[in-house]
Specification:
By secondary structure, this protein is α+β, with helices and mostly antiparallel strands. It has a single domain, classed as 3-Layer(aba) Sandwich (Aminopeptidase), CATH 3.40.630. It contains 5 helices and 7 strands; from the N terminus they run βαααβββαβαββ. It has helices at 10-21, 25-33, 42-46, 89-103, 118-123; strands spanning 2-4, 50-55, 58-65, 72-80, 108-113, 127-134, 137-145. Strands 1-2-3-4-5-7-6 form a 7-stranded mixed sheet.
């Protein structure tokens, strides 16, 4: 089941994001040095921009979709519990985001994908775009036409 996040689960979602991010050893030290990178904006939760995938009463993933600008929504976050990775949670969250973005009049979803995530995004229909630079290193914009 995918539902809107609640304000009272902000800390639990941030902890989930940390576990998901710590899967990749090359990012652990950087994330430890920049804990603000894990902070979820409560205003996005209040605005219903954070969606949670729940299975058997447990949070196993979440996504953050920013409002449309110039007919595109940015997928600002997509995180899945390590034990649930490769089990369809991420794909379901992308499908949910696509439906939501279409409903808001967007014709595309864009995401900045780190090198570890590009394969996943390609599997769910995103195509590579322009390079992006993040504080954690090089990345790539990827786009999903709706």
């Amino acid at each position: 089941m995918i539902r809107d996040a609640r304000r009272d689960e902000l800390a639990a979602l941030e902890a989930l994001q940390r576990r998901a991010s710590d899967v990749w050893e090359e990012y652990r030290e950087q994330l430890a040095e920049h804990p603000d990178a894990i902070a979820l904006d409560v205003a996005l939760v209040r605005a219903g921009r954070v969606r949670v995938f729940e299975k058997d009463g447990l949070r196993v993933g979440f996504s953050v979709l920013l409002p449309p600008r110039e007919e595109a929504c940015e997928l600002d976050g997509l995180f899945v519990e390590p034990a649930a990775m490769r089990g369809g949670v991420g794909s379901a969250l992308v499908a949910d985001a696509a439906e939501w973005a279409r409903g808001e009049g967007a014709s595309r979803i864009s995401v900045i994908a780190n090198p570890r995530a590009t394969e996943f995004y390609e599997r769910v229909g995103f195509v590579p775009g322009e390079p992006a630079e993040t504080r954690f290193g090089p990345a790539m914009w990827m786009h999903l036409n709706l």
